[in-house]
Amino acid sequence: MKNSSIFKALIAGVITLACSFSQAQMRVEISGVGSNQIPIAVAAFANEELSPQLVSTIIRDDLNRSGYFRLIEVGAAISETATIDFESWKARGATALVVGSVQKKGEGRFDVRYKLFDVLKNEMLSGFSMDTPNPKIRLTAHKIADDIYEKLTGIPGVFSTRIAYVTKAGNQYRLEISDADGEGVQVALTSKEPIISPIWSPDGMKVAYVSMELKKPIVYIQNLMTGQRSTVANFKGNNSSPSWSPDGNKLLVTLSKGAIAQIYSINADGSDAQRLSNSNGIDTEGRYSPDGRYIYFVSDRGGNPQIYRMNADGNDVKRITFKGTYNISPRISPDGNTLVFISRRDGGDYVYAMDLANSNQELKLSDTKSDESPSFAPNGRYVLYATQTGRRGTLGIVSTDAKVKQKLTIQAGEIREPTWGPFMK
Q: Does the keyword Signal apply (predicted)?
């Protein structure tokens, strides 16, 4: 087990005081399609050329990237005030139609208006307008795409959410934050040493991570708006694997305190560290269930790393994974029904999903062979993970039915350690 990524050096470095914009651009490649694609027409928004970015293009890209929509060519721009010829759109094969406009309100502000129509029922499904400052045009477009996704699938969209990940170029490591499509990149942390295990707080305002800038692994929390950070765990020995409680008041951390690594809970201000696991093996990577009742974690107490579950107070430990001899990195879906993890089988490390109500039902999600660090999208429909393409670290996104796959790369350098942020209020 000591060759596992969960025992690699937990090193990070010097922190920047606030986020700065990155020049690195992420490339997204899509393969596969979801079942029963929805044919949708997204018209150019009237007067959208007045804004710094084309709203309709961002919406189309979002829907196309999801894998669950088939885009129908439109042509001319259509305003939300236009009269819709539903029969014409039916003849073109569309079941849904998106129209809208962008109106300049003043210096650096726009009124973005949108409507979604059910072509088959000849009725409007949704629509709204948003007063949008110049820098928020992309966010408004993502929110429109989220609304379309939810109205047509019944599942909240995640286009307006954010992801965090670590890039390495030369001797520099950076913790970066971006939109879910890889755009709008900001740098939250820079280092000459690796950055390990970033994870979002439930409110999406902070990230916890591990740094070894003081020549030992220490767990920190950093506020993404101000850059301010605080120390959470700085005990003797190893301090690693932070993860948040559902209410954001506590974290789980792995501490050795000079002995064997075990799982502790600790307040977000670094007070009141309480040991939860108790074994003769290494216990690590603790994760709360969404309702806070259980903790899933990795232990080699049986000889090989497997995933276990215990009550939030550390009692009633049960083994969860039985297939394969090497299972790590447990992640629980937002509804608490599915476990995603990394399993070493058939000569590779792959992302697997397990139905927690029936442990015999497992689905291999990835087709890459060096996978790490899975992270659920907040709607539970996609999983973000780290992998390799050739010898370069890249990110993958796969739908939980394994039908839609995306690969995210940066032009120069590697990208690892991903974590998908929560829905923002």
A: yes
